[in-house]
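URGENT: need a sanity check before tomorrow's submission.

F., can you look over the AraC-type DNA-binding protein record below? I want to be sure the sequence and structure line up before it goes out.
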Amino acid sequence: MIKKYLFLLSLCWGDQICAQEIHFKIPDTIRNKDYDYLFERIKESENDQVKQSLYLQSFLSKAKSEKNSEEIVNGYKNYLRRSPENLKLVYADSMIYTAKKSRDNALIGSAYLSKGIVYYAQKKHNFALDNYLIANNFISKTNDKYLVYKVKYNIANIKYYLGFYDEAISLFRECIGYFKENNDRAYLNSLHSLGLCYNRVGNYGLCTETNEKGIVEGGRLANDEMKDYFIHSEGVNQYFRGNYAVTIKKITYSLPAIRKKKDFANEAVGYFYIGKSYWDLKKPQMAVSYFKKVDSIFDGRGYIRPDLRENYELLISFFKSKNNPNLQLYYIEKLLKADSILDFKYQYLSSKIHKEYDTKELLTQKKKIEEILDKRKYNDLIFTSVIVFLFLSVLFLIYRHIRNKRVFRQRFDELMKKSEVATKLESKNIANGIEDINQDTVAAVLKQLEKFEKDKKFLEKDLTLTKLAVAFDSNTRYISKIISHYRDKKFVDYLNDLKVDYLIILLKEDKMMRNYTNKALAEEVGFSSTQRFATAFFSRAKMPTSYFIEELLKEQ
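Structure tokens as predicted:
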């Protein structure tokens, strides 16, 4: 009901703005003022919405009456920066519509870049990346260096988000070199992001140097907008150096400014690392009060990232130690919800997250606690059921073992008859096109896929659809559809099958590899975990790795 109300309210406001534009008349006192004058008045009247609205409308009406595409786009951008979240994308689309009519590559690229930035602020990173790539296609056709580096900066933020820290570091360094002489705020932003990357790769010394440099440079440039962010970043960095008191002091100092900017993401990160510091200082009660603040932001904003997942593990652990099953259950359910979001948004990072409570265990704990709270004791029934289940399981395992031996041997013989060429994935005829994708694009992607397979790039660890799209200068939807159509597989299956087929060839040809453990084999062909490797091998070969190697040794 509330969502419907907000939606109707946003429509009403949008209609009101449109109606005002139609009937609006620029006051005589500012009719002949230029765009710079109106823009300065917009900035100066941030605390007077009535006056600001007058200048916003005057700016846009003047641009439309003069049919000045660049200034019309700037007019919508003025609205975008000062509008509520539910209208920002509306103004971004108006910018794109106007820019496309102008056929100006720089203007179109800049408009798509603005839309990507809106998505990034909303933490919709896949949509942000799609718009950044479109922006790059247009901007790369221009000589506008500022826009070129602005795209680089935003692509670097996506790479940081994806966990490609080394690539992000390289891009941020380029941005620092350009923005140092051309844009003070972008220069300081790039320094801040570079420091975050250094922290993530474990180079805490360089992170400290970068944060200190950021504060000094901000002073030199008389720009203190990023000062609190450098202090916040250093607070987090000091946690990893074991200086918990310094962490608490620095982050606590920076939080008022971050809250004022409504930066809920960095606010949540700050609360978490203050809580972690108190936790490691053996002050769990203090820690829990901050962990609850992180949970409050998760409730209100839905914001979570991989390192914040531990927030719920620690809350569960705390209330388990306090013998409080109600709150233990409550935070288990919260962790399950967080995991569902992380699995969707952070598929590329899921293998790197150490999960003290995996989903299966959480569901088991949840069920046990619910049984305790409901006082349902079916011990005799459970015991009997377990005995029956174990007996049937033994019978089933005996049957499956006998059957599998026969099936595995048949499949092993088939694999041994295959040549290297036979193990490669077959492609469909390129003539069978995909209706909603340009055939030149399809052909280009297929050519890149062939090179990708030939050069064995599929062996790269933690490779994802998003990362492949970035490498191909395409987008995830195109890559996914083309692989599905021409390789007849989902992306994950396509990647796994390439790895397994390559490994089967290695095991046939290299006798030494037959002595490797599953973990070593998984690492050899780029699987992020032993379990994922074992599952993928069984799916492709229709037998366990151990059986295949055992039969190879017998043949040997």
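My own read: The radius of gyration is 29 Å. The mean pLDDT is 82. If you see anything odd, call me.
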